[in-house]
Amino acid sequence: MTRHDKIPLSSSEMLLVHGNSGTLAVVKAGGAQRQQFFVDTPEGEFVLAVGPEELLVASGFGTDERIENGLRCVLYMIREVNSPLIVLPKNHPASARLKIVVAAGKRIVLSCSITPGTHPEQHLLCGMKEFDGAEILGVEGGVVLKGLERAKCEKRGFVNEIKKPRAYLFFF
Asked: Is this model's pTM higher than 0.70 or not?
């Protein structure tokens, strides 16, 4: 299969894209309708409306298990807990310490020539040099990867089904 083929992806799955020096994680925005995500920038806050087939993509600067767990955690915090997407001011000292950055939308373009965490344009995502220029597209029922032919992809569960809590009665 070429990477321009659709890779099926449901809202309960996460696609991991492994490179030599970086990892990407992709989830569907999910939900039955458009979701609203808040983007906080130095100039103010704006609301980003994202459809169920659109994507949240996290870029991790590393390849180990800690990065994979962090990618899942960050995507969960944004999609499930509705944490805002934070955009740092240009030349902010925390940019150099960021290990994971996120973008949201129907089409995400990766660039290694931008400063991590400082771009409010949600179609643009900082990534490792090996991902430079790659595109990730959200399509009905899946994703399309362009420019990631050498990367290894795998799907994992993202959100477990919510189980009904059991009621326990204790008598003393």
From this structure: yes
The torsion of the CA quartet 112, 116, 121, 123, rounded to 10 degrees, works out to 50
* Residue 94 located in a structural domain: yes
Range of the domain at 112: 6-157
Tens-digit pLDDT profile for the chain (172 aa)?
Answer: 455 689 999 999 999 999 999 999 999 998 777 889 999 999 999 999 999 999 999 999 999 999 999 999 999 999 999 999 999 998 899 998 999 999 999 999 999 998 888 888 888 999 999 999 999 999 999 999 999 988 999 999 998 644 445 555 555 4
| Angle value at C-alpha 67, between 61 and 68, nearest 5 degrees | 125
User: In terms of Cα–Cα distance, which of 85, 130, 139, 96 is closest to 111?
Assistant: 130
Q: Is residue 163 part of a domain?
A: no
Neighbouring C-beta atoms of residue 68, cutoff 10 Å: 18
Cross-strand partners of 142: 8, 139
Residue 92 within a domain: yes
Based on the structure, what is the number of domains in the chain? 1
